[in-house]
Amino acid sequence: MTSYPDAALSRTYDSVLELIGNTPLVRLNVLTRGLPASVYVKLDHFNIGGSSKDRIAVNILREAVANGELQGGARIIETGQGNTSIALALAGVLTGHPSTVIAKPDLSPGKLNLLRLLGVDVIPGRFDVDKDDPEHAWSVAEREVAAHDDLWWSRQQSVRSNPAAHYASTGPELWHQTEGRITHFIAAIATGGTVSGTGRFLRERTPGIQVIGTTFDLPERPWADAALNKVFHRAPGHEELEQDWADNVDLEQLDALEARTKGEVIDFAFRLARTEGLLLGLSSVLSIKVALERAESANPGDVIVAFSADHARDYTAAEYDEQWLRTHDFGDIADRWFTN
Ligand SMILES: Cc1ncc(COP(=O)(O)O)c(C=O)c1O
Questions:
Q1: Distance from Cα 340 to the centre of ligand 1, integer Å
Q2: Contact present, 166 and 198 (Cβ < 8 Å)
């Protein structure tokens, strides 16, 4: 049991910025029964803004100020739909930069209101059209940047300070928290910052470590599974597909890529919540599912770490809502978990 107060945690913090990083690493105890390896989860919703993106937001702003790209008081523009835009807006508040976010029409009211709470100027843009379409969020951002001298776009997909933030914080934290015993690191891929930066740090310390990226196998992104496998294995046609992956996905740091369907991940999210008491976002659940599968064939004593980017609270109006499940073809999952 924890004793109160815990001497190591009994302190005050001089700024909200100190509440970014140094997040807990917790062991799974129920779902791992009988497995040879231990599985831990890095809980990055403990960051003050509620997700792992706080780490990169602060680092991206710091670097942009240091290299003169982001001048005092200039406005930040962002196309990320949720965690990154909230994290950048928060870091902007703390460093004196207002924010504009290009938001998709169906952005959840919860996320929209969080952005508004932080004083963000929200402009509409779409992601369901071709990247060259003038309505695409990136085209809207390009036009805004061209029209306003004081607008600065973080470009988290390619900016090196994104993986560098994880190299400087997530990697060392995991190394110390596992006392150097970590054997597998498993994280979901979007921009690639988490898996590339953390992976690079850990690989430098533990040459044999397995770094595994995870992704959703989605019907609306039929290229995803084919793309990741072709790109990863440098199979014929991989160059064409590479453009679908962000520049910050560093394939050199990856030992494997694993895709799971949304249905199997949502289903497992309920099991995870009701066994381990972990209320986590979908990409986190995806990585934990892959981690547990790996643990089945792992060596005794292996230490597998799954990365959790955010909390279940961000998904309660969608994937964790009974009506949403029933109207999105996941009625079987709703039947299984909402019937007592
Ligand atoms: C919930 C969630 N999980 C995982 C990721 C992937 O992180 P990264 O962009 O570092 O690859 C993101 C980033 O957008 C995210 O918001």
A1: 34
A2: yes
Measure 214 CA to ligand 1 centroid, in angstroms: 10
Find out whether the peptide bond into 36 is cis, omega within 30 degrees of 0. no
Q: Give the three-state DSSP class for 333.
A: helix
Query: Within the chain, which residue ranges are assigned CATH 3.40.50.1100?
Result: 7-46+161-334, 72-149
The architecture that CATH gives domain 7-46+161-334 is 3-Layer(aba) Sandwich (3.40)
Rounded CA separation 310/43 (Å): 8
Which residues face 75 on adjacent strands? 151
Tokens 């099991």 belong to residue: 271
Q: For 119-173, how does the pLDDT look when each residue is reduced to its tens digit (9 = 90+)?
A: 999 999 998 898 889 999 999 999 999 999 889 998 888 999 999 999 999 999 9
Cα separation, 194 vs 30, in Å, equals 27
The model carries a pTM of 0.94
Pocket test for ligand 1, best of 162, 169, 186, 189 (most atoms within 8 A of CB): 189
- Write the pLDDT tens digit of every residue in 172-218: 999 999 999 999 999 999 999 999 999 999 999 998 999 999 998 86
d(CA 191, ligand 1 centre) in Å? 7
Type of residue numbered 66: A
The helix or strand, by DSSP H or E, that contains position 182, with its residue range, turns out to be strand 182-188
Cβ-based neighbours of 125, under 8 Å, separated by 6 or more: 79, 102, 103, 104, 135, 136, 137, 138, 139, 140, 141
Find tokens 């934290």 and name the residue. Answer: 173
CA–CA gap between residue 196 and residue 205 (Å, rounded): 14
Return the SS3 of 43: strand
**193 neighbors 156 (Cβ within 8 angstroms):** yes
Could you name the CATH architecture of 72-149? 3-Layer(aba) Sandwich (3.40)
